[in-house]
Amino acid sequence: MNIRTAALGVAIAGLAVAGCDTATTVASRPEPPLTSAAAQATTTPAQPPAATTSARSASARPGGCDPALWRHVYHPYRLHVISACMTVTGIIEAARKEPDGDYHILLKPDRAGIVNSVNVSQQYGDLVLEPVCENPVTQADAIAACSGFMGDVRVPSDGTHVSVTGSYVLDADHGWMEIHPVSRITVIGYQPVSAPSSSQPSPSSAAPAPSATSAAPAGCYPKTSGGNCYEPGEFCSTAEHGETGVAGDGKTITCTDVNGTWRWED
After folding, report:
1. How many structural domains are present in the chain?
2. Distance of CA 63 to the CA centre of its chain
3. Domain final residue, candidates 172, 190, 208
4. What is the pTM of this model?
5. Are 244 and 266 in contact (CB under 8 A)?
6. Which residue range forms the structural domain that includes residue 239?
7. What's the rounded Cα separation, in Å, for the pair 122 and 126?
């Protein structure tokens, strides 16, 4: 009787201990940890890419195109990219500032096949170049694109032979072909001045006074970079807008805006 009582007491004590352990285990069970991806999403918001201090990004290839310039093209959807990066050569014939902050430059290309019929009918057969955010912006929908950025493409004077690198595009709003945005303009040379004729006397010879019929017009001004007189219909530079001069035939000419392009008109 005493043995049964003792065994029963041991069993009851064991059950009590087991019950306490189970309760302790249930009460202290930890929650499963968040996975690393979920933890990142809930505790660390996604960070935007570090802002660059200049549109000339470090990833731009030396001598190539700078893709960061596309951030500063307003309404980029209007430009249909034909070649993401292309270099062309030609002679700058005219340049003007646009309200969107860009330059609008007319380039007489050295090679054929890079302009279309709209370039011929509306841009005098020239390829349009657009260095972006080079000037103050007055066009409302272009302000954001140039905010905090100023382009650094130097625009040479009219008559300069240049190499131009940038994206070759169709401007769908106007229908003509452009290099837009322009990454770089490099000067190749200037309009050559005609070399002296071999029949001219040497510098040591006494030069006869020029006759009135062979002398260049003394009063023509301003002159091209090649030293020649301007004639009506020729392009005039940005610095000459509104200026009045004298053509080679003695007629008065004025640098006038003709349908968006500045030309000398009599």
Report:
1. 2
2. 14
3. 190
4. 0.52
5. no
6. 216-266
7. 9
Among 59, 48, 49, 72, CA closest to 148: 72
Q: Measured between alpha carbons, how far is 133 from 41 in angstroms, rounded to an integer? A: 38
Same domain, 84 and 183: yes
Q: How confident is residue 164, by pLDDT bands cut at 50, 70 and 90?
A: very high
| In the block, residue with structure tokens 């007489």 | 108
Residue 181, phi then psi, degrees to nearest 5: -80, 155
Q: Please report whether residue 234 resides in a domain.
A: yes
Report the pLDDT value the prediction gives residue 130, as an integer from 0 to 100: 97
Same domain as 96, residue 168: yes
Instruction: Convert the chain into a string of H (helix), E (strand) and C (coil).
Output: CHHHHHHHHHHHHHHHHHHHHHHHHHHCCCCCCCCHHHHHHHHCCCCCCCCCCCCCCCCCCCCCCCHHHHHHCCCHHHEEEEEEEEEEEEEEEEEEECCCCCEEEEEEECCCCCCCHHHHHHCCCCEEECCCCCCCCCCHHHHHHHCCCCCCCCCCCCCEEEEEEEEEEEECCCCCEEEEEEEEEEEEEECCCCCCCCCCCCCCCCCCCCCCCCCCCCCCECECCCCCECCCCCECCHHHCCCEEECCCCCEEEEEEECCEEEEEC
For 96-110, the pLDDT digits (tens) are 999 999 999 999 999
Which amino acid belongs to residue 50? A
Same domain as 136, residue 225? no
Contacts of 184 (CB under 8 A, 6+ apart): 63, 153, 164, 165, 166
CATH code, domain with 138: 2.40.50.140
**What six digits make up the tokens of 232?**
């009506």
Tokens matching residue 22? 């189970």
Q: Model confidence at 141, in pLDDT bands (50, 70, 90)?
A: very high
Q: Which residue has the tokens 């004025």?
A: 254
